Amino acid sequence: QVQLVESGGGLVQPGGSLRLSCAASGSFFSSNEMGWYRQAPGKQRERVASILSGGFTNYADFVKGRFTLSRDNAKNTVYLQMNSLKPEDTAVYLCNFVYRGRDGLQNSWGQGTQVTVSS
């Protein structure tokens, strides 16, 4: 079983910054991709950013230039540095982990951490 531990959410003013962390632990052969999704009330879940084990990153258009995703493969941890936060960034941010287990590729989700951007 794989467990994801998320941290770093909170309340910030517009223009502020937060740093989210997600650490994966448990039993798996290898990791393929880790990233962050977000979901606001009444909105569908959307991908914020993801990173492959090799380092290639994908960013949603609405966060490009503001957010930076990095990964520590040795620790199976991803970090999302969020700068220039906007009120529309307010959402529950969920860590996602795609990994390979005995049955092939599997997908795990964190419980989510609340990010609120408000003045």
Concise account of the structure shown:
With 119 residues, the chain is an all-beta fold.
Number of helices: 0
Helix content: under 10%
Structural class: mainly beta
Tell me, rounded to a whole number, the average pLDDT.
95
Order of helices and strands: EEEEEEEEEEE
Q: What does the overall shape look like?
A: elongated
Largest sheet: 7 strands, mixed
Q: How many E-type strands?
A: 11
Describe what you observe in this structure.
Strands 2, 4, 5, 6, 9, 10 and 11 form a seven-stranded mixed sheet that branches. 0% of the residues lie in helices and 61% in strands. Strand 9 (91-101) and strand 10 (104-109) form a beta hairpin. The model has no long low-confidence stretch (mean pLDDT 95). It has 119 residues and is mostly beta strands.
Task: Write a concise keyword list for the protein shown above.
mainly beta; seven-stranded mixed β-sheet; four-stranded antiparallel β-sheet; 61% strand
Question: Which helices and strands occur, and which strands form pairs?
Answer:
Blueprint: E1 2-7, E2 10-12, E3 18-26, E4 30-39, E5 46-52, E6 57-59, E7 67-72, E8 77-82, E9 91-101, E10 104-109, E11 113-117
Parallel strand pairs: 2-11
Antiparallel strand pairs: 1-3, 3-8, 4-5, 4-9, 5-6, 7-8, 9-10, 9-11
